[in-house]
Amino acid sequence: MMKTLADYKLKENPFRIGPPLDPNDIVWAGFKSLKEEIERRIKYAISTTPSRMVLNWGKYGSGKTHAANYYSRTDVLKNLTDSAGKAEAVSIKINLPRTSKDPVQAFLRSFFGQIGLQRIKSDLTKLEAAVGREQLLNIISSVSSDNVITSLFTNILETESEDEFPLIEAYLFGDSTKGTLTKIGLPAGLKDDEQVVNLLSTFINTITYEKRSISSFLLWIDEFEDIDTLNKSSQDRFTTFLRQLFDKTPNNLLLFLNFTPKTFFNIEDLSIILGEALSTRAKLRIEFYEPKISQAKEYLEELLNNDQFRSEPVENKFAPFEDASVEHLLAHIGRLSVRKINEVFSLVLELAQIEMQDSISVDFVNSLKSEIVYWQ
Amino acid sequence: MQEVLNYIKTFPPALYYVDSYEETLSISIGDRTDSMYLCYFFDPSALGDSWVDEDWEQERIIQAIFEGQIQIKFYSVRFWSEYETVENFRSSANTHVNKLESIRLSALKLYIKLFNNIPEVKIGYADDSYCSGSVEAKYLELVFKHSEHHLLIKYCEYVTNSDLIIVSPATPFSFLKNPIVKETTHNIHFIPFITTNTKARRIGYWKIIIKLFEKGSYYPLNLLPIKVESLAAALKPELKEYKSVYKGDDKGEITEGFKGASAKPYIQLTKELNLLTEINKSYILTKQAKPYLEINRSFDESDNNKFVLNNNDKLFFLQTIIGTDILYFGTISELALIAGDEFHPKKLYPLFKRYLIHKIDLMLLETENDRREGMLQEMKKRVLQWENEIKYVEHIIEPRINWLLDLQLIKHSNNKGFFCFSDAGRRFVNVLCGISENYIKGWLDVPIFLNEEYYLAVNYIYDWGGVDRWDANAILKYLEEAMVLFKTDAPRRIAASQGINYVCTKSLLEKGFVVSFSDVKSYLINLSNSHFALDWYKTENDGSLIKQT
């Protein structure tokens, strides 16, 4: 016999440790000033033209990946563009390629893995509806200055059936055999990193042209500290690629780099790996700060009472946790991070169910000291 | 064989001791200490089953040896040392020979003096088999081959008649409160030695290379050598003066040439020393080198000869060399010390290979379950295959002899081409012995030594008169300075090692207060005020020092 979450007036356990599968479960709770900072960046990106690079600094478990998921996989971004009266924005999250022999190719696959040819075609078609085919082709060709890239996009625009997509995908991912080239009708394959930059920047520049059909392209690069798993020349290659991508996309791109402030063998932190050239372009930063107890309480209150999780209104806002036990827990688990808070509160919640607690008191929390790894 | 037996008979039988398990006949020698033995290793196999089945007490064995029924295979001299694990031991700088490292250097010094060679050396121990199994005593053994008995006799005569064993050239030195350190290193995947070129001899050039980064934070790969060469050209008079006035040396000059070729060995060396690294086809200073650079700004050196190292230079470069190169640098330092009261570098060349193998063998005694065991075995195989190594070994020895000179650990002696150790140099070798003696994996545990004792050690080596004192106000002030000096794009934080080393160095050089890296780290971890917090990353052996809002 154990208590159910319904007994606690909860629909589900709100304390996630990993990213949720169901986008509805991706909620934002507390951390108001952080949210405002991120959204200010997004609003500027939606409403103004210059591309920007932002470094998101935060320890493990501080919510950087969550932020990327929140703005990429829910309706929040749409709400922001709607209230600004602008066309929709695109947001995708890519993990930095790990232990890869060819980090640029890995990045490309990841990018198109999320965007997909259907999406590309529909974005291009949308713009076509606004400016007409001829104008669109002019835009593509002037932005890319590269026959191969122009032909590729023309090709995508003109494909009638989705059956042809696999062939185009193969081409994108390096298949430049004579047979494929002939079938697609392209003169050559994608040769090198510069051409990949060209491909991506052409795509982004085109679909965000004058913000007509897409107002902004948000690109989150997560787990940047994994660059340490690449060898020196791959690291240099990747940072060069990023710099070129940023330079070739001077409009409407908002690039978020998720950085963990750890230190490395010979160098202080990731901003040094980024190199002088990229550092001068990345002057903006957002700190995913360590919450104080009061901020953690705010987070917990909003999380527990979010419509996604709370089944009916409750008097004690932290239910099933008693007010005092929330403070007690937060004060005894050392330095706080969202992940740590979620882990601890999830565990206590589950144990309370097993132990048939009507509510979670300070005494009950104390009885669990040995179960809680972080207890101090 | 008869000669061997005759020699044994010159000793009174009361001094004989037979160990039938180890198959040795030991003879206590030397009346100044009861811890030296001649050991004769015998082979009882000619006795067949009789050896196993019958009772062979001491008398009977000795008789069989003298009658030739039991053959002697080889011989050794053994020096015993009591192994102390006293918890509150405080080491002192006396010369009483009670430590194995002292004995080792004495014994080898004598051997080199007599035979100009390095013998096979073994280390063994006797445990307290009745009780805890803990080690009670260790011995150092110099092994003599079957054909070398005449050398053995000569060695014993000297050992019993001279001071050479009693007054050791070095005494292991440690400031640790618990001298046998319980912590040891794991998961380290390199052996601490670096590759050098005979041209890269002057430490002064490392200074000027690093100083270039006062003006720029990065230099393209092909540009730095050229800049270094033009700077070096301006320093030629100072280099000459370094030799003539400051009793230094002018070898290893960087000359102005074509495309920076002359500077390249030095730049390569600064990379090996982890002072410079490459990002995006440019050189940048490593995080380790930046505190050194910042502290040097406060030394007004416009009038000083750049090749004469100041205290900050000595502190930092010695620390760097110990961390990256102790296997070669320490080996050469020891060898130079025991090669004679004064030594000529070229005399070391033929001895180096064997002495290095000896040092590697000592390290291998403590590397069970450590991946470095395999690396050391590989290294030993490679070194054993060195042929005609005199030319090759020059690239290893010459730079390091010159570093010893620039660090003022050795000086020119009156004989041209010869060097002798300064007091600081002797104390340096004491520290090397202390690391071998007191750390579980000896020199392989140098990262722990650097954290626990380096600032104490360098203060002792150079006799700067620093005292063990904690000035909390000064420490906080230095931390605040560090937060500004080492700022990067990371918000409100710097690399902890930069802050901590800055604090330790400033505290010692400016105030004369000695604090260790681990003292400051513990202070930061335990700090319950709202100034600073420390995130530590064990795998990096470093962390982030955060300024709290």
Structural write-up:
With 376 residues, chain A is an alpha/beta fold. Chain A is 51% helix and 8% strand. Chain A contains 15 helices and 5 strands. In chain A, strands 2-3-4-1-5 form a 5-stranded parallel β-sheet, with helices on both faces. In chain A, α4 (103-131) crosses α7 and α10 (232-248) runs parallel beside α11 (270-281). The radius of gyration of chain A is 24 Å and the shape is elongated. By secondary structure, chain B is α+β, with helices and mostly antiparallel strands. In chain B, 45% of the residues lie in helices and 14% in strands. Chain B has 20 helices and 14 strands. Chain B has helices spanning 2-9, 49-53, 58-66, 100-115, 149-161, 204-211, 224-234, 236-244, 264-272, 289-296, 311-338, 345-364, 372-384, 389-406, 423-438, 446-452, 454-462, 472-485, 496-511, 517-526, and strands at 16-19, 24-28, 36-43, 71-82, 120-127, 135-144, 219-220, 276-279, 282-285, 410-412, 419-421, 493-495, 532-537, 542-547. In chain B, the strands form 4 sheets. In chain B, strands 1-2-3-4-6-5 form a 6-stranded antiparallel β-sheet. Chain B has a 3-stranded antiparallel β-sheet with strand order 7-9-8. In chain B, β2 and β3 (36-43) form a beta hairpin. In chain B, α10 runs parallel beside α19. The longest helix of chain B has 28 residues, at 311-338. Mean pLDDT of chain B is 89; it is low at 85-97. Chains A and B meet through α10 and α11 of A and β8, β12, α19, β13 and β14 of B.
